[in-house]
């Protein structure tokens, strides 16, 4: 290594890129930097939402065969189909249909279910909060379990130490990871509902109804997040600044609290978001097992019945929830870790 | 032997200009040294010459333009770190053979053996992987690979920076011998001025994407005209000199960013500039131009004032 | 060392042969299952319908009286084949997208943004979306799961490719005139293959779970075709009547998921193991030979090191010894430099004194003292002595600062903790310290984070932190190696000035003998974990006694070299920490070596007036450079 260490890299190589980074940091100093940061995130969110809208819109048009014909069944006469197409606005030019679709969604009109003819929006407003009531506590639990377990295992398995701990950790988390939530849900209800009769069988009947679904949701994600936390913690524990803190003889507790924890947060939280997103989707399956009145119990039925407005609505709401969540975490990271603001810009 | 001519070379990365109009000629069979701090653009010049970075300006070898991919092969680059410049999955023979064109099979193996011999490597290493070699051996493999393309110009970018000092000399001696035997034209990039003095005929000092001083290596090091060159020379640690702790040519400030456009980019740190002599407003208002008319020149408004020869030995 | 003991590893059995056996079992079931149990699986027997677990039907029967165990075994083929196909579909699409986005700059931005959006969506949501698009059934669900995997594959391929593309060997290939297709197939793909294969293996397991999930929702394969998810779905509807029928498909799904998960784990261990395993032979290093003690008994010394040895035990029981035998003392206010090439053990020597060697590293010494503290048996008071009186500056000025906290916090901490100062006092002192290291606008810098500082400034902060205690010793480990020469000069001047002001001793580690000679009173030269020579700076530079020192001096380029002569050089490399030689470790490269040098280790002997060298044939004449013949090329 040398003073003129100019490793040629990708275009923004060290040679040319250092000055701009520094100039950039100066230019964006203070509150202005925050506005730029938040603005970019917002633009990204809006763009992603548009992609989501376009995808759900195009979905219906890409399906082989005529969805109206399919929905009405074989007995429907061409006139009936044409009539229905006109009612649904499917005979309009595509851009106009998309415009009507977007304005509808923005004003809270998600159309009507083909099967029940009920407004999709009503169904979503009653069911979606139930889904969140499962996913939210599950996520909290995942973080509360994974963070300490991952960090503890990392400390115990540094530098090839604690091979037994590592072995057990890898195998147990591997096993938990391999049990899909719906299988775990099935087994749990088999044991606790059918055999022991400790918990209510299905539906939402107060606090005790939460236990099994949340447990089924938490096990896998907690295992995978604690693996990620361990890997991230190992990286941070080997960082030069942790060594430097040790050289300054800072007490162990302070070292972990101020040097290790904040630095492993960034990556862990990023993965954590993906896990929370996965949890929202995971509820779809678990709700089916426990008959939980969320959107999950509806969607499989809707897909089988080809109830496209309903599918669109559910995918939109779940997708938007995921995107919003990502944005929130990005902003939280921006507060916790100033680097993540600059790094992305 | 071939002469390299570079005119008004510019490299931009987005809104950033890394090289701002660099021109120089390297006479056939001679060695030009490029020195400067990190971020001065010296490696970017090298990357632009071999086509790794898009650039504007003219690049010619013996008058022939260098813009096609085939023509580019006439210029070869040896990278700083042989650990990353050799594919860990290749054998030494495969590494070197990658530089060959139009030769296959036994002829290629024979040529590789020849090249390995040329860089003083035992042909028996042909079957080993880069990871099994020492740093000096790896760097010689990289040199052999560059020579396989039969280049007219070889650019050595910090080739000894990741080597230990006892091995560094092996590689430097090799490059000097190759230059003499093959008549190579070379650009030698280094942060080590002593090495540059030993290896080169001419010397260009770069700062903030420009050449601020240019001349025969003995001239530039013996009679530096630009204050940056002088600070650079004064900062070179040398065995038993204890010069670093002296007060000579200490920069005016520790600012690391170059000054913004409009004046001399070095003015914030310059020991004789406005930071030390506030009346020298011209440094702030006017960008100094290099007077390329004569052999040794510097881009400094007050270059002429440095008439007293202060070399490192002086 | 406890390294020799290797207990049975709990994970060994699971992560070793078992996944392989399970994969073989699954392959066998997929191939032979339908022909062995096909009949039993499809033979309906209404009389035995909806039975629970029994001797005749171990896992019960379904509503047509078909044996669930047989059906589960038969379903292996469908479940696994569909999973493999889905992984291949997702892998091909994703790897293609990832390669494209990493290699083309324009397209890369757009594709990268798309991948970023897609990867945020949970795979199941994507799978449902695609299941609607492709239709319900085997083909639809395979395509749906494959499509939902594509963003993940694209991301990992993109990341890996980006890291390989920026490698210099790919650039070198470009410089040699090779086209993008050659580069992709000869350099990039081979170098990303291992992790991608690993990722795919794990994803076969994930695909089993995902496909079963779709089937479970009724969106996967449709009757009469069935897979594990379908069986589980059927079982679930009867869970309150005959609970046992959900067990067989559950076990199958979990086992398949676990198998591919563990297989991936095992593969990654293999890859990592092969990467890290040097082709070194096992060696049991012999105990250090007793060498005479350094001059004086070390009384009143700031640092007193006798026969220091640092060993590392790797997981498979190999022991390496990067520091073999180091003895020296450092008097108060003295400035000592340790010079050596990379791997000579100089930094680990410093780390051992600073108590920074961590498991699996192990420090042994006859004596290791700092001031009054015995570092071999550290107690609570040792911590405060070290915290207060020893300061350390690291090589990479940026990495040594915590990116998550303010510059100021770094400075305040030692004063508050070790000197029990109040925060306002400590802050005042911190601002003074920043001023002392010539940082302009200290109040603003105090509030900043490390990414807002330049390299030179970060190193100044590193030194300022050292000023916050009552340092009696500053250990500087290659503090200027990463910096430009003009910045290096500033830092060295700073170290010199502050050293004079605080009267602290200095232990300066560097590979550059010129830098060390600028600052230090005494120089220690290390080679292969040994001190080979130690002398006052002027003596060492004037008349080196050890041939290595002499070569080091002669090979260091200096201004005004005679350009008509080749440089002094010695080829070869230093014996690594795993080497175990009976004689002198430099002998193989030494022009003066004879048979004695190869068979007997030279002790570090006192030659004259406080200079020591470990050589059987020390140089006596000044300027007696042991080179020229055979050593240069």
From TrEMBL, chain A:
Transmembrane segments: 42-63, 134-155, 167-195, 207-225, 268-290, 310-336
Domain ABC transmembrane type-1: 128-333
Localization of this protein: Cell membrane
Membrane association type: Multi-pass membrane protein
Main subcellular localisation: membrane
Compositionally biased spans, kind Basic and acidic residues: 15-25
Keywords, sorted A to Z: Cell membrane, Membrane, Transmembrane, Transmembrane helix, Transport
UniProt keyword annotation of Amino-acid biosynthesis present: no
Keyword Transmembrane helix included in the entry's annotation: yes
Protein name per UniProt: Peptide/nickel transport system permease protein
Organism: Nonomuraea fuscirosea
TrEMBL record, chain B:
Pfam families assigned: ABC_tran, oligo_HPY
Keywords of the record: ATP-binding, Nucleotide-binding, Transport
Domain of life: Bacteria
Residues annotated as domain ABC transporter: 4-233
GO biological process: peptide transport; transmembrane transport
Entries under Gene3D superfamilies matching the protein: P-loop containing nucleotide triphosphate hydrolases
GO molecular function, one term: ATP hydrolysis activity
Classification via SMART domains: AAA
Family: Belongs to the ABC transporter superfamily.
Name the UniProt record assigns to this protein: Oligopeptide/dipeptide ABC transporter ATP-binding protein
Biological source species: Nonomuraea fuscirosea
Organismal lineage: Bacteria, Bacillati, Actinomycetota, Actinomycetes, Streptosporangiales
UniProtKB/TrEMBL annotation, chain C:
Cellular component annotations (GO), alphabetically ordered: plasma membrane
Domain ABC transmembrane type-1: 76-264
Keywords, ordered alphabetically: ATP-binding, Cell membrane, Membrane, Nucleotide-binding, Transmembrane, Transmembrane helix, Transport
InterPro entries for the chain: AAA+_ATPase, ABC_Ni/Peptide_Import, ABC_transporter-like_ATP-bd, ABC_transporter-like_CS, MetI-like, MetI-like_sf, Oligopep_ABC_C, P-loop_NTPase
UniProt protein name: Oligopeptide/dipeptide ABC transporter ATP-binding protein
Domain of life: Bacteria
Keyword Transport set for record: yes
Alphabetical GO biological process terms: peptide transport; transmembrane transport
NCBIfam families: oligo_HPY
GO molecular function: ATP binding; ATP hydrolysis activity
Record field: transmembrane: 80-102, 114-136, 196-219, 239-264
Composition bias type Low complexity, residue spans: 274-286
Family named by the database record: Belongs to the ABC transporter superfamily. Belongs to the binding-protein-dependent transport system permease family.
Listed SUPFAM superfamilies: MetI-like (SSF161098), P-loop containing nucleoside triphosphate hydrolases (SSF52540)
Annotated segments matching region Disordered: 274-300
Location relative to the cell: Cell membrane; Membrane
ABC transporter domain segment(s): 305-553
Membrane is among the record's keywords: yes
Membrane topology: Multi-pass membrane protein; Peripheral membrane protein
């Amino acid at each position: 290594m040398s003073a003129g260490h100019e490793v040629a890299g990708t275009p923004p190589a060290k040679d040319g890129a250092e000055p701009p980074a520094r100039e950039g940091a100066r230019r964006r100093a203070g509150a202005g930097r925050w506005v730029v940061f938040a603005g970019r995130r917002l633009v990204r969110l809006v763009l992603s939402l548009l992609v989501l809208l376009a995808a759900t819109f195009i979905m219906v048009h890409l399906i082989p065969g005529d969805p109206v014909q399919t929905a009405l069944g074989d007995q429907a006469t061409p006139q009936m189909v044409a009539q229905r197409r006109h009612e649904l606005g499917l005979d309009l030019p595509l851009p106009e249909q998309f415009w009507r679709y977007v304005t509808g969604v923005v004003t809270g009109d998600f159309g009507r279910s083909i099967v029940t003819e009920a407004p999709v929006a009503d169904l979503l407003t009653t069911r979606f909060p139930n889904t969140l009531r499962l996913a939210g506590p599950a996520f909290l639990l995942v973080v509360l379990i994974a963070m300490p377990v991952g960090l503890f295992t990392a400390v115990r398995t540094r530098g090839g130490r604690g091979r037994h701990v590592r072995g057990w950790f890898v195998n147990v988390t591997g096993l938990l990871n391999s049990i899909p939530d719906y299988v775990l849900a099935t087994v749990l209800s088999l044991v606790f509902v059918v055999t022991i009769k400790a918990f209510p069988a299905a539906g939402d009947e107060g606090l005790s109804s939460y236990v099994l679904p949340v447990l089924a949701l938490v096990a896998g994600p907690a295992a995978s997040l604690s693996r990620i936390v361990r890997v991230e913690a190992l990286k941070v524990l080997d960082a030069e600044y942790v060594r430097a803190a040790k050289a300054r003889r800072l007490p162990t507790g302070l070292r972990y609290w101020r040097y290790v924890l904040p630095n492993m947060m960034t990556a862990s939280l990023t993965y954590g978001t993906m896990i929370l997103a996965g949890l929202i989707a995971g509820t779809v399956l678990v709700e089916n097992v426990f008959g939980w009145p969320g959107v999950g119990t509806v969607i499989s039925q809707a897909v089988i019945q080809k109830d496209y407005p309903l599918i669109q609505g559910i995918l939109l709401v779940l997708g938007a929830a995921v995107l919003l969540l990502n944005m929130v975490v990005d902003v939280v990271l921006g507060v916790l870790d100033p680097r993540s603001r600059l790094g992305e810009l | 032997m071939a002469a390299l001519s570079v005119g008004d070379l510019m490299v931009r990365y987005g809104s950033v200009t890394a090289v701002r109009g660099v021109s120089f000629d390297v006479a056939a069979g001679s060695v030009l040294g490029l020195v400067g701090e990190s971020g001065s653009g010296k490696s970017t010049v090298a990357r632009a010459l071999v086509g790794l970075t898009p650039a504007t300006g003219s690049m010619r070898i013996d008058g022939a333009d260098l813009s096609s991919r085939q023509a580019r092969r006439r210029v070869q680059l040896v990278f700083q770190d042989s650990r990353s410049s050799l594919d860990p999955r290749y054998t030494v023979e495969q590494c070197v053979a990658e530089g060959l064109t139009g030769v296959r099979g036994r002829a290629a193996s024979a040529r590789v053996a020849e090249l390995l011999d040329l860089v003083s490597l035992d042909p028996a290493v042909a079957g080993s992987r880069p990871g099994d070699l020492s740093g000096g051996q790896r760097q010689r493999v990289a040199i052999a690979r560059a020579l396989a393309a039969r280049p007219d110009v070889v650019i050595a970018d910090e080739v000894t920076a990741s080597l230990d000092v006892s091995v560094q000399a092996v590689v430097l001696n090799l490059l000097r011998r190759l230059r003499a035997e093959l008549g190579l034209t070379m650009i030698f990039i280094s942060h080590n001025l002593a090495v540059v003095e030993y290896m080169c005929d001419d010397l260009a000092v770069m700062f903030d994407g420009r050449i601020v001083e240019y001349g025969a290596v003995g001239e530039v090091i013996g009679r530096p005209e630009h204050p940056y060159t002088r600070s650079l020379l004064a900062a070179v640690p040398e065995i038993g000199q204890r010069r670093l702790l002296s007060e000579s040519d200490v920069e005016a400030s520790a600012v690391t960013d170059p000054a913004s456009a409009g004046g001399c980019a070095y003015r914030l740190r310059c020991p004789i500039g406005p930071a030390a002599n506030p009346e020298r407003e011209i440094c702030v208002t006017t960008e100094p131009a290099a007077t390329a008319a004569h052999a040794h020149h510097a881009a400094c408004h007050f270059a002429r004032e440095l008439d007293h020869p202060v070399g490192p030995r002086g | 060392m406890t390294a020799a003991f290797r207990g049975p590893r709990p994970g060994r059995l699971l992560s070793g042969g078992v996944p392989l056996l399970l994969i073989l079992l699954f392959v066998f079931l997929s191939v032979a299952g339908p022909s062995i149990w096909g009949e039993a699986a499809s033979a309906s027997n209404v009389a035995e319908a909806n039975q629970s677990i029994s001797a005749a039907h171990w896992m019960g029967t379904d509503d047509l009286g078909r044996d669930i165990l047989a059906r589960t075994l038969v379903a292996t083929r469908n479940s696994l084949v569909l999973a493999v196909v889905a992984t291949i579909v997702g892998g091909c699409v994703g790897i293609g997208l990832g390669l494209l986005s990493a290699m083309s700059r324009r397209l890369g931005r757009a594709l990268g943004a798309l991948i970023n959006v897609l990867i945020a969506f949970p795979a199941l949501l994507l799978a449902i979306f695609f299941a609607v698009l492709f239709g319900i059934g085997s083909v639809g669900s395979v395509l749906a799961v494959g499509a939902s995997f594509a963003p993940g594959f694209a991301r990992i391929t993109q990341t890996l490719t980006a890291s390989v593309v920026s490698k210099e060997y790919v650039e070198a290939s470009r410089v040699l005139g090779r086209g993008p297709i050659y580069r992709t197939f000869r350099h990039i793909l081979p170098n990303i293959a291992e992790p991608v294969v690993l990722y795919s293996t794990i994803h076969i397991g994930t695909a089993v779970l995902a496909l079963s999930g779709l089937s479970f929702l009724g969106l996967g394969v449709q009757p009469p075709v069935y897979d594990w998810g379908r069986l589980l779905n059927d079982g679930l509807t009867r869970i309150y009547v005959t609970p046992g029928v959900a067990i067989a498909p559950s076990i199958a799904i979990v086992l398949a998921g676990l198998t591919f998960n563990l297989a991936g784990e095992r593969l990654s261990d293999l890859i990592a193991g092969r990467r890290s395993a040097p082709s070194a032979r096992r060696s049991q290093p012999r105990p250090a030979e007793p060498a005479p003690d350094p001059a004086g008994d070390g009384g009143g010394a700031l640092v007193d090191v006798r026969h220091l040895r640092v060993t590392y035990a790797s997981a498979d029981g190999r022991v390496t010894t990067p520091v073999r035998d180091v003895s020296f003392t450092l008097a108060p206010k003295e400035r000592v430099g340790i010079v050596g090439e990379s791997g000579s053990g100089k930094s680990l020597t410093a780390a051992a004194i600073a108590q920074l060697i961590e498991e699996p590293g192990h420090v042994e010494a006859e004596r290791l003292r700092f001031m009054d503290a015995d570092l071999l048996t550290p107690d609570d008071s040792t911590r405060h002595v070290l915290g207060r009186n020893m300061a350390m500056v690291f090589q990479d000025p940026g990495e040594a600062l915590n990116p998550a906290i303010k510059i100021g916090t770094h400075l305040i901490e030692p004063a508050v903790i070790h000197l029990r100062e109040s925060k306002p006092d400590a802050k005042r002192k911190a601002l003074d310290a920043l001023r002392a290291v010539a940082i302009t606008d200290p109040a603003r810098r105090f509030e900043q984070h490390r990414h807002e500082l330049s390299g030179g400034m970060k190193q100044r902060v590193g030194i300022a932190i050292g000023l916050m205690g009552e340092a009696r010793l500053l250990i500087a480990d290659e503090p200027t190696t990463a910096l430009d020469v003009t910045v290096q000069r500033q830092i060295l001047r700073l170290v010199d000035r502050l050293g004079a002001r605080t009267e602290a001793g200095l232990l300066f580690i560097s590979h550059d003998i010129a830098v060390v000679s600028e600052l230090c009173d005494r120089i220690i030269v290390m080679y292969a974990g040994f001190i080979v020579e130690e002398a006052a700076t002027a003596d060492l530079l004037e008349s080196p006694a050890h041939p290595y020192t002499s070569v080091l001096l002669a090979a260091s380029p200096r201004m005004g070299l005679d350009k008509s002569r080749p440089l002094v050089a010695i080829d070869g490399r230093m014996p690594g920490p795993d080497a175990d030689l009976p004689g002198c470790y430099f002998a193989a490269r030494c022009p003066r070596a004879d048979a004695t040098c190869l068979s007997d280790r030279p002790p570090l002997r006192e030659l004259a007036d406080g200079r020591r060298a470990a050589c059987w044939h020390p140089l006596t004449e000044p300027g007696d450079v042991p080179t020229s013949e055979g050593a240069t090329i």
